[in-house]
């Protein structure tokens, strides 16, 4: 079986490829443009781990480059495509909105159309909890009305809409995965936990928005990877579906930071105002993912956090 994973040097892509290359009779092809949105050193470290395995082959290019992507699809007959390459991050979408359109809209359209033309059996792609925007009733269910608040979330909603039409019009089987604040080892330095610990390590000031009064449905990376594996190797995807991957346990940002203070130490903090483009609370319903995959035991935040802190103590100085 041949699987293409885009964004393979990224946080989730790295962990997914690491889990897939352990399996027999599977070849993994990874694409990433190794951009400088955050530490290239971290991306290179992840990649060098993956390259130790012979069943992994890496291609460095941009998914918005149709010609390069088309030539890869025609050279290798992929069975499954997992598109995780994206310009991530809500705050950066204020600074550089066009990049979200280039990668998340144009790049994704390339993936979608080539998946149709080359008759890919199943396409999985990253959506986001941020498509829900500000909601009143929690936990949010997949069928809720969406209300994106920023260019990033809008790009993900757009992906879902295109995939739905491609499924109806061309029979392309696909699944949009709405990840909810994934955390863990090898995580993203632009996201809360590692950003906070990096501030402490590098003695820089950590900007805390809204006094940490946001809530996030933190979901541990190992759980996400088990679930993705179950989805990839199941017969669940028959048309286009969207699915929440979340622990269904929202926690206040300030509470998480207090835990990190005890386990890792506290950086200097600068209080800043709430950003209107950020949603106050994410809290997803995970009944659908539990019932279709049978995965039920989400990792407790204390366990996940200890694993992340231990990794950070060893590795943050390197990135
Ligand atoms: N981590 C989370 O909590 C979370 C939450 C919601 C959604 N998501 C989505 O899941 C996916 C993976 O997230 P992640 O946390 O691993 O992010 P990440 O930024 O660590 O990984 C994305 C990777 O894609 C690569 N990339 C970006 N633009 C590219 C392009 N044009 N061509 C080729 N490669 C490109 C980057 O270099 C990076 O290595 C993204 O689509 C993200 O929007 C993540």
Structural class by sheet pairing and helices? alpha/beta
CATH class label of the domain at 2-184 and 219-248: Alpha Beta
Residue fraction in strands: 15-25%
Described by its quaternary structure, the protein is single chain
Give the overall shape. globular
Q: How many helical stretches? A: 11
State mean pLDDT (0 to 100 scale). 98
Low-confidence stretches: none
Q: What spatial order of strands do you see in the largest sheet?
A: 3-2-1-4-5-6-11
State the share of residues found in helices, binned by percent.
40-55%
Q: What's the end-to-end separation, in Å? A: 34 Å
Q: Which fold does the CATH topology of the domain at 2-184 and 219-248 refer to?
A: Rossmann fold
The helix-strand sequence is: EHEHEHEHHEHEEHEEEHEEHEHH
Q: Total number of β-strand segments?
A: 13
Bound molecules: nicotinamide-adenine-dinucleotide
